[in-house]
Design brief:
2 copies of one chain form a homodimer.
Chain A lengths: L11 H9 L4 H9 L5 H8 L3 H13 L3 E5 L7 E5 L1 H4 L2 H14 L8 E5 L24 E5 L8 H4 L5
Chain A binds a DNA duplex (30 and 30 nucleotides) through helix 3 and helix 4.
DNA sequence: AAAACTGGTTGCAATACGAAACCAAATAAG
DNA sequence: CTTATTTGGTTTCGTATTGCAACCAGTTTT
């Protein structure tokens, strides 16, 4: 993957992508969230080449997103389980899935279903909200560059006071 | 990017990554959300090679995430603006940024700040919630495979009735 | 004890990447 | 209004990453 490392960028998104920005990483994490634990699971579910899978798993372990643990059932192999860091990616995974369901759904419908366990209903769209849970429109969300870091756009070049 | 296309996979996440899974795509989209509109903005902000940027922008336009529009201020060039599809990726972008802020923050702090515009306070963590806005713990969120599609794990092989 | 499976590793070829050079058209400067 | 600079690319090239197939030791099943 690593043609150019994003790890020296200040941007949090870039730094995150440095961990999970690889083609397969997020799919591996999703499978882990769905219960995959063993090499063979990932390989069969994803149809990924074995050497690539080895490489991705090693990266994810090195990045603290997965960890290797002895097999729970006494077998000799090790298993891959999500760390807290890894589980904390759930919003990203779910948001990607929801976007896909909405905009690029497969004709046969989605392959995974995310629900509120209690009610069994589909999970509401993951979306910016106020602290009290109220949904926000995108224009109610402010995104700005912190001190100095940031882009040069005409508005900012001209110090446009919009 | 496209070594193996994910577009034939049923999984929504894979299909989404087929659009934005490339190294730079999400960073370009983030910059677009921050106000970048011109080729030079993206290039300078990201430090991306020009040929790669050309390629990514074309892909994003082809995927309906960006569109080319005449420059708003009468100049001859065209500008790249997010479509509704593109803006709808905001939760993904924000979730990635929040994860990065939490787990892999740069020593100098985040470069972008996302706020509730009204109050100016940091945007609460994007996270699964019930329809009424109540936060959910991860074990209150159900993720399952739809009919048949899905992985082979021991639990499912053995039809473990957990 | 033999056969099959698991979890890899090692080439190899194809593809995608970044860097640098180059270029026509559009802007800006003098 | 003539020249210099910027913009928005394209082309070429060398390197890095990927998928595929073959192979292999150790584990598990038959």
């Amino acid at each position: 993957m690593k043609t150019k490392s994003f790890s020296d960028m200040q941007c949090s998104i870039a730094r995150t992508l440095d961990h999970v920005g690889s083609w397969w990483s997020l799919l591996i994490i999703r499978d882990a969230m769905m219960g995959a634990r063993r090499f063979k699971h990932f390989q069969r579910n994803l149809g990924i080449a074995k050497n690539t899978l080895t490489s991705r798993l090693n990266d994810l372990v090195a990045g603290g997103i997965l960890e290797r643990v002895p097999a729970a059932d006494g077998y000799a192999h090790e298993e891959y389980v999500l760390t807290e860091r890894g589980r904390d990616l759930a919003p990203v995974i779910i948001a990607l899935g929801q976007w896909g369901d909405k905009w690029v759904a497969h004709e046969k419908g989605p392959s995974t279903v995310v629900t509120v366990r209690e009610s069994g209903e589909p999970l509401p769209r993951i979306w910016p909200r106020r602290a009290d849970g109220e949904l926000l429109a995108l224009n109610e969300v402010g995104m700005r560059w912190a001190n100095g870091a940031g882009p040069i756009t005409e508005t900012q070049e001209k110090e446009d006071p919009s």
